[in-house]
Amino acid sequence: MNCFRKLFLILTLVVFAPVLCNAQSEDKSFNASELVMEHIRDSHEWHITGEGENAIVIPLPVIVYTNAGFKAFLSSDFAEEKDGMKIASNGLALAEEGKYAGKVLEKSESGEYEPVKLDISITKTIAVMFVNAIILILCILLPARWYKNRKPSDEAPKGFVGFVEMLVMYVVDDIIKPSIGKGYEKYVPWLLTCFLFIFVCNIMGVVPFPPGGGNVTGNITFTFFLAFCTFVITQFSGNKHYWKDIFWPEVPVWLKCPIPLIPLIEFVGIFTKPFALMIRLFANMLAGHLIGLALTCIIFLMASKGIAMLTGMTILSVSLSVFMTCLEFMVCFIQAMVFTMLSAIFIGMARTEPAEE
Amino acid sequence: MDLLYPSVGLLFWMSVVFFIVFLILWKFGFPAIINMVNERKAFIDESLENAKKANEKLVNIKEESESILQEARAKQAEILREAAATRDAIVKDAKDKADAEGAKIIEEARAQIQKEKEAAVADIRKQVTQLSVEVAEKILRKELASDNKQMDLISRLLDEVTVSK
């Protein structure tokens, strides 16, 4: 189920509550947690709306490395349903339930279905990320083109270009510059890309219809990648003082020799910092998606409890959803900012010179 | 729980997409915006500096013009004063000259008059002498018409000369 249908249903339910109420109660029971998890999880197809036969689905390319080498085909090939799996014409299967749910499987020599060796399919999250990347590039390159034929003495940009300029200069001047300090220029492209990428993905995640609605920043792989990059940059930016502070900090000798207590803590600290970055962004964005979906699910859960209950809860749910979406837009910005700021601070901390006595 | 495990495929595409985006933005996106903003900042600073300088210049020019005006006024007053002095001097000179000329003329006239007067007096005296001689001649002629009387006179004259001796 997708956000678009969610929104559409909210609107239609308010108007046609009684009719839908009857239809819903005759249907199979509504499974809220499945709906929410389906949205949060990655999948090999882009489900836009509809259920079963009427579903509107964008098939996505499946690229896997099997025992027989690389195979690439569209996910719509998974047509034949058998034993909780969808089997494609080339023999590969997509598990729908069980411990391999959502994974592409192949028949091993023993006849069992096992996960393929390597799965680099363009999943829904990746497709959404492609779209987001294109949007981001357009959002920056179009304003950048605007500057091409203009001189510094010309009027400052207005409208969208002005907004982008303001955003970029805000990140550079108010986040990166004070956090890193002297020599911040070489980190600007990376941190700025991080900020804008996270920001665009966050915003597009709140938009409830395609190409938005994808859970990109609420995916641990995404945040892991960014945090890992920050980790690497931080270690390579570290100066002598940084490493000395980790392995031979200025504490009483018995704290670092013979048992290197503080150095151990400091060393673990190297990894906990980017780990915190990773978890913070992931958890915040995931929670945002979960709350939004959960609030909408109230409507469907209440459908079987009678018209009065349904109408009342629908109004409550819609008003709460509106509030949460507004909050979510704020969180989109704040989380992008926090990630960038913390990355900048970690890099800045690794570069600080010892204070003069 | 699979939410918490990074997936290899996603990681692969993620790094590809992210690095492409990063490179494009790094090469073509950010420099244009940041450089332009920095240049604009520099331009604004420069403009402010220029405006400040221009203002200072303006103040200087104002002061200068004020001083020039002051000078001109002083010069004007001086010229006026000089002109007045010159005028006074000329008038005084002319007056003096006129006085002197007048005095000379009067002197000359006086001298002329004196001369005329003296000439007239001399003339009158001459005429008077002539007249008196003529009168005396006439009187003598009449008195000495007879011989007796001539004799009388001679004798009286002789007497007088002797007596007075």
Structural notes for this entry:
- By secondary structure, chain A is of the alpha+beta class.
- Chain A has 2 domains: 61-121, no CATH class; 124-351, no CATH class.
- Chain A has 10 helices and 10 strands.
- Chain A has helices spanning 3-15, 17-26, 32-40, 124-148, 159-180, 188-206, 220-237, 240-247, 261-302, 307-351; strands at residues 45-49, 56-59, 61-66, 69-74, 80-82, 85-87, 93-95, 104-107, 113-115, 118-119.
- In chain A, the strands form 3 sheets. A 5-stranded antiparallel beta sheet of chain A has the order 5-6-7-8-9, with no helix packed on it. In chain A, strands 4-3-10 form a 3-stranded antiparallel beta sheet, with no helix packed on it.
- In chain A, strand 5 (80-82) and strand 6 (85-87) form a beta hairpin.
- In chain A, helix 4 packs across helix 6, helix 7 packs antiparallel against helix 9 and helix 9 (261-302) packs antiparallel against helix 10 (307-351).
- The longest helix of chain A has 45 residues, at 307-351.
- Chain B is 93% helix and 0% strand.
- Chain B has one domain.
- The longest helix of chain B is centred in the middle third of the chain and has 136 residues, at 8-143.
- Chain B is rod-shaped, with a radius of gyration of 66 Å.
- Chain B starts with 7 loop residues before the first helix and ends with a helix.
- The mean pLDDT of chain B is 90.
- By secondary structure, chain B is mainly alpha-helical.
- The chains are: A alpha+beta (357), B mainly alpha (165).
